[in-house]
Amino acid sequence: MSHYFRPFPKINYKIPGVTSTLVVTDITRRFAISDLLKKAGAVYFNYEIKDGDRPDIIADKYYEDQTLDWVVLLTNEIHDPYFEWPLTNYNLNKYVRQKYGSVPNAQAITHHYELTIQRLTELSDGSVLPKRSVIVDYATYAANIATSRIVDAYTYELELNETRRNIKILDERFIDVIVNEHRRIFE
Protein backbone atom coordinates (compact mmCIF):
# COMPACT_ATOMS: atom_id res chain seq x y z
CA MET A 1 0.00 0.00 0.00
CA SER A 2 3.00 2.30 0.37
CA HIS A 3 3.02 2.76 -3.41
CA TYR A 4 -0.42 4.35 -3.14
CA PHE A 5 0.97 7.23 -1.07
CA ARG A 6 3.96 8.05 -3.30
CA PRO A 7 2.23 10.78 -5.36
CA PHE A 8 0.53 12.33 -2.31
CA PRO A 9 1.68 15.87 -1.50
CA LYS A 10 4.10 16.46 1.37
CA ILE A 11 3.38 18.95 4.14
CA ASN A 12 5.37 20.49 6.99
CA TYR A 13 4.01 19.18 10.28
CA LYS A 14 4.73 20.93 13.55
CA ILE A 15 4.76 18.65 16.57
CA PRO A 16 3.61 20.47 19.72
CA GLY A 17 6.50 21.02 22.13
CA VAL A 18 9.16 20.41 19.46
CA THR A 19 10.93 23.30 17.75
CA SER A 20 11.53 21.65 14.37
CA THR A 21 8.97 20.55 11.80
CA LEU A 22 8.73 17.26 9.98
CA VAL A 23 8.01 16.77 6.29
CA VAL A 24 5.24 14.16 6.12
CA THR A 25 2.85 12.70 3.57
CA ASP A 26 -0.55 14.40 3.63
CA ILE A 27 -2.71 11.33 4.25
CA THR A 28 -5.84 13.46 4.56
CA ARG A 29 -6.15 13.44 0.77
CA ARG A 30 -8.37 10.77 -0.72
CA PHE A 31 -8.67 8.97 -4.01
CA ALA A 32 -11.92 7.10 -4.73
CA ILE A 33 -11.76 4.41 -7.37
CA SER A 34 -15.43 3.54 -7.25
CA ASP A 35 -16.78 6.80 -8.78
CA LEU A 36 -14.18 6.80 -11.54
CA LEU A 37 -14.90 3.21 -12.49
CA LYS A 38 -18.67 3.60 -12.41
CA LYS A 39 -18.30 6.22 -15.12
CA ALA A 40 -15.98 3.99 -17.15
CA GLY A 41 -18.28 0.94 -16.99
CA ALA A 42 -15.51 -1.17 -15.47
CA VAL A 43 -15.59 -4.95 -15.37
CA TYR A 44 -14.93 -6.87 -12.17
CA PHE A 45 -14.27 -10.50 -11.39
CA ASN A 46 -15.23 -12.23 -8.17
CA TYR A 47 -12.35 -13.53 -6.09
CA GLU A 48 -12.30 -15.45 -2.81
CA ILE A 49 -9.30 -14.63 -0.66
CA LYS A 50 -7.51 -17.73 0.56
CA ASP A 51 -5.36 -18.10 3.67
CA GLY A 52 -2.05 -16.41 2.98
CA ASP A 53 -3.34 -14.16 0.19
CA ARG A 54 -2.26 -10.57 0.56
CA PRO A 55 -3.15 -7.55 -1.61
CA ASP A 56 0.34 -7.50 -3.15
CA ILE A 57 0.16 -11.21 -4.03
CA ILE A 58 -3.23 -10.74 -5.69
CA ALA A 59 -1.99 -7.64 -7.56
CA ASP A 60 1.01 -9.58 -8.82
CA LYS A 61 -1.19 -12.52 -9.86
CA TYR A 62 -3.72 -10.41 -11.79
CA TYR A 63 -1.76 -7.34 -12.86
CA GLU A 64 1.81 -8.69 -12.81
CA ASP A 65 2.73 -5.78 -10.54
CA GLN A 66 2.71 -6.18 -6.77
CA THR A 67 2.90 -2.40 -6.30
CA LEU A 68 -0.73 -2.23 -7.45
CA ASP A 69 -1.85 -3.69 -4.13
CA TRP A 70 -3.60 -0.38 -3.45
CA VAL A 71 -5.84 -0.96 -6.51
CA VAL A 72 -7.02 -4.27 -5.02
CA LEU A 73 -7.73 -2.56 -1.70
CA LEU A 74 -9.45 0.56 -3.01
CA THR A 75 -11.50 -1.33 -5.59
CA ASN A 76 -13.07 -3.07 -2.59
CA GLU A 77 -13.17 0.10 -0.45
CA ILE A 78 -10.73 -1.43 2.02
CA HIS A 79 -9.02 1.49 3.74
CA ASP A 80 -7.49 -0.38 6.67
CA PRO A 81 -5.95 -3.68 5.56
CA TYR A 82 -5.16 -4.62 9.17
CA PHE A 83 -8.81 -4.71 10.18
CA GLU A 84 -10.73 -5.05 6.90
CA TRP A 85 -8.68 -7.79 5.21
CA PRO A 86 -9.58 -11.34 6.29
CA LEU A 87 -7.38 -12.95 8.89
CA THR A 88 -5.81 -16.35 8.35
CA ASN A 89 -7.44 -19.10 10.41
CA TYR A 90 -4.43 -19.07 12.74
CA ASN A 91 -4.59 -15.29 13.23
CA LEU A 92 -8.37 -15.35 13.66
CA ASN A 93 -8.05 -17.83 16.52
CA LYS A 94 -5.20 -15.74 17.99
CA TYR A 95 -7.42 -12.62 17.75
CA VAL A 96 -10.34 -14.47 19.41
CA ARG A 97 -8.07 -15.65 22.24
CA GLN A 98 -6.82 -12.09 22.79
CA LYS A 99 -10.32 -10.60 22.74
CA TYR A 100 -12.25 -13.28 24.65
CA GLY A 101 -9.57 -15.16 26.60
CA SER A 102 -9.96 -18.43 24.70
CA VAL A 103 -11.93 -20.02 21.88
CA PRO A 104 -14.17 -21.94 24.35
CA ASN A 105 -14.90 -18.66 26.18
CA ALA A 106 -15.91 -17.02 22.88
CA GLN A 107 -18.13 -19.99 22.07
CA ALA A 108 -19.84 -19.63 25.45
CA ILE A 109 -20.67 -15.93 25.00
CA THR A 110 -23.91 -15.01 23.25
CA HIS A 111 -23.10 -12.26 20.79
CA HIS A 112 -26.62 -11.82 19.40
CA TYR A 113 -29.79 -13.59 18.26
CA GLU A 114 -30.80 -13.92 14.61
CA LEU A 115 -34.15 -14.50 12.96
CA THR A 116 -34.05 -15.99 9.47
CA ILE A 117 -36.40 -14.05 7.21
CA GLN A 118 -35.45 -15.88 4.00
CA ARG A 119 -33.86 -19.28 3.67
CA LEU A 120 -31.25 -20.03 1.01
CA THR A 121 -33.39 -20.83 -2.04
CA GLU A 122 -32.40 -22.19 -5.42
CA LEU A 123 -34.75 -21.06 -8.17
CA SER A 124 -35.77 -23.13 -11.17
CA ASP A 125 -33.50 -21.08 -13.45
CA GLY A 126 -30.47 -22.05 -11.33
CA SER A 127 -30.08 -18.69 -9.63
CA VAL A 128 -29.85 -18.59 -5.86
CA LEU A 129 -31.55 -16.29 -3.38
CA PRO A 130 -29.21 -15.94 -0.40
CA LYS A 131 -30.22 -16.53 3.17
CA ARG A 132 -31.23 -13.31 4.93
CA SER A 133 -31.31 -12.81 8.67
CA VAL A 134 -31.91 -9.94 11.04
CA ILE A 135 -30.62 -9.39 14.55
CA VAL A 136 -33.41 -9.61 17.11
CA ASP A 137 -33.83 -9.41 20.87
CA TYR A 138 -34.19 -12.44 23.13
CA ALA A 139 -38.00 -12.27 23.25
CA THR A 140 -38.27 -12.37 19.44
CA TYR A 141 -35.75 -15.20 19.34
CA ALA A 142 -37.70 -17.21 21.92
CA ALA A 143 -41.01 -16.62 20.10
CA ASN A 144 -39.55 -17.84 16.80
CA ILE A 145 -37.18 -20.55 17.96
CA ALA A 146 -37.72 -22.70 14.84
CA THR A 147 -36.38 -19.96 12.54
CA SER A 148 -33.95 -18.30 14.96
CA ARG A 149 -30.46 -19.01 16.19
CA ILE A 150 -28.08 -17.93 18.90
CA VAL A 151 -24.86 -16.56 17.49
CA ASP A 152 -21.95 -16.94 19.88
CA ALA A 153 -18.98 -14.58 19.81
CA TYR A 154 -16.71 -17.09 18.05
CA THR A 155 -19.25 -17.75 15.28
CA TYR A 156 -19.78 -14.00 14.89
CA GLU A 157 -16.04 -13.34 14.46
CA LEU A 158 -15.66 -16.32 12.10
CA GLU A 159 -18.61 -15.31 9.89
CA LEU A 160 -17.49 -11.68 9.81
CA ASN A 161 -14.02 -12.80 8.73
CA GLU A 162 -15.49 -15.06 6.04
CA THR A 163 -17.56 -12.23 4.52
CA ARG A 164 -14.31 -10.33 4.03
CA ARG A 165 -12.97 -13.12 1.81
CA ASN A 166 -15.22 -12.20 -1.13
CA ILE A 167 -13.76 -9.32 -3.10
CA LYS A 168 -13.84 -7.92 -6.62
CA ILE A 169 -10.83 -7.82 -8.91
CA LEU A 170 -10.77 -5.00 -11.43
CA ASP A 171 -10.26 -6.11 -15.01
CA GLU A 172 -6.66 -5.38 -16.00
CA ARG A 173 -7.83 -3.28 -18.97
CA PHE A 174 -8.77 -0.51 -16.51
CA ILE A 175 -5.50 -0.42 -14.57
CA ASP A 176 -3.88 2.28 -16.73
CA VAL A 177 -6.95 4.50 -16.30
CA ILE A 178 -6.74 4.19 -12.51
CA VAL A 179 -2.98 4.66 -12.24
CA ASN A 180 -2.99 7.68 -14.56
CA GLU A 181 -5.92 9.31 -12.75
CA HIS A 182 -4.26 8.65 -9.40
CA ARG A 183 -1.07 10.41 -10.59
CA ARG A 184 -3.01 13.27 -12.19
CA ILE A 185 -5.02 14.03 -9.06
CA PHE A 186 -1.95 14.40 -6.87
CA GLU A 187 0.23 16.39 -9.29
Q: Can you give a write-up of this model?
A:
- The structure is a single chain.
- This protein is α+β, with helices and mostly antiparallel strands.
- It has two domains: 2-85, no CATH class; 89-163, no CATH class.
- 42% of the residues lie in helices and 23% in strands.
- The protein has ten helices and nine strands.
- It has helices spanning 2-5, 33-40, 55-63, 69-75, 81-84, 89-100, 103-108, 138-143, 153-163, 175-185, and strands spanning 10-14, 21-25, 44-48, 110-118, 121-122, 128-129, 132-136, 148-152, 166-170.
- Strands 7-4-8 form a three-stranded antiparallel beta sheet.
- It is extended.
Order of helices and strands: HEEHEHHHHHEEEEHEHEH
Helix content: 40-55%
How much strand content do the residues show?
Answer: 15-25%
- Terminal CA distance reads 19 Å
Dominant shape? extended
Strand order within the widest beta sheet: 7-4-8
Task: Return the structural class.
Answer: alpha+beta
How many beta-strand segments?
9
Overall mean confidence score, pLDDT: 86
Domains (count): 2
Largest sheet: 3 strands, antiparallel
Rg value = 22 Å
Number of discrete helical segments: 10
Instruction: Give start-end ranges of low-pLDDT stretches.
Output: none
What oligomeric state is this? single chain
